[in-house]
Amino acid sequence: MKKQVLFAFLLIISLVALAGCGEKNAAPTPSTSPSSSPAADNEGAKEVTLKIGASSVPHAELLNLVKDQLKEEGVTLEIKEFTDYVQPNIQVDEKQLDANFFQHLAYMEQFNKDKGTKLVSAGSIHVEPFGSYSNKIKSIDELADGATVAIPSDPSNGGRALALLEKNGLIELKEGVGIAGTVKDIVANKKDLQFRELEAAMLPRVLDEVDLALINTNYALQADLVPTKDALFMEDKDSPFPNIIAAREDNKDSEAIQKLVKALQTPEVKAFIEEKYEGAIIPAF
Q1: Are 163 and 183 in contact (CB under 8 A)?
Q2: Is the Cβ–Cβ distance between 270 and 127 less than 8 Å?
Q3: Alpha-helical runs (H) found in 26-154
Q4: Where are the beta strands (DSSP E) in the chain?
Q5: d(Cα 161, Cα 215) in Å, to the nearest integer?
Q6: How far, in Å, CA of 208 to CA of 1, rounded?
Q7: Residue 252 has pLDDT above 70, yes or no
Q8: d(Cα 243, Cα 265) in Å, to the nearest integer?
């Protein structure tokens, strides 16, 4: 009887010891192991969606060019196209968009001043030399006295247009105004040119109504104009107006936006710009 009790006692102790060893050696399940959590393992590679506002040409075209590459890097581009120069900035400032790609630095700085926004540049991508166009004349020498000239109504592009007219001998501006000049700053106008200030997007539509129009290249391209062939005169390749990725101070250095800028500054994008736009668009990197 004593032997049976002793045997039972030893058997119980052995079973308890085996159970303890099993618990110590059991591998943690995927759901409880911190090292196997996707969020922990791939936190740096987490996919993000970047909402970008853009003009259709060439900005959205360039964004679509790098879309697949960015997808592979964990950044999904959501591109919203605009036909104006105001809403893309308002929506970035109000955080409806993460960034935009349509404007040059001088325009953004003037917009900040006028609207109280605080947009910043995250990087320069390309230059769009400003040009003059006409459906009525083939040469600047044919521009008649009293001719009507249409220019952008926003301050930075309007001043840019006037500076280009001055460079080509059509007007003279008050000394020192540079690209900040307005029609009121014209001090010499030997042809008595009449100026119409219109929203930039409207300028290609009034070519049949005016004698000359100074048009931003993106809107010229959208109107099927070929700047290097159709413009009577243009800014040169050293134009100090690079088009930028505009963002906010709180996100311009984010990994996603920096990946976007880097993707748009590759040799492949440079080759695409040079081949497709034939000098109408010039890489700024």
Answers
A1: no
A2: no
A3: 38-41, 61-72, 87-93, 105-115
A4: 48-55, 75-82, 99-104, 119-127, 131-133, 148-152, 172-173, 186-188, 194-198, 212-215, 233-234, 242-248, 282-283
A5: 8
A6: 119
A7: yes
A8: 12
This prediction has a pTM of 0.79
The Cα 137–Cα 232 span in angstroms is 9
CA–chain centroid gap for 38, Å, is: 32
Q: What angle do CA 81, 122, 77 make, to 5 degrees?
A: 40
CB 158 within 8 A of CB 152: yes
| Residue 54 near residue 80, CB atoms below 8 Å | yes
The CA distance from 188 to 172, in Å, is 5
Closest C-alpha among 243, 224, 221 to residue 99: 243
DSSP state of 141: G
The band of 59, judged by pLDDT with boundaries at 50, 70 and 90, is very high
The tens digit of pLDDT for each residue in 18-31 reads: 444 444 344 433 33
Which domains does the chain show, CATH number per domain? 47-129+240-283 (3.40.190.10), 131-234 (3.40.190.10)
What is residue 45's predicted lDDT score, i.e. its pLDDT? 58
In the chain, % of residues over pLDDT 90:
81
Alpha-carbon gap, residue 113 to 105, rounded angstroms: 13
Half-sphere exposure of 218 (CA within 13 A, CB side): 25
Cα–Cα distance, 135 to 137 (Å, whole number): 6
pLDDT band, residue 160 (cuts 50/70/90): very high
Decide if 124 contacts 135 (C-beta within 8 A): no
CA distance 67 to 102: 17
Scan for tokens 């104006």, then name that residue.
84
Distance of alpha carbon 161 from alpha carbon 182, whole angstroms: 10
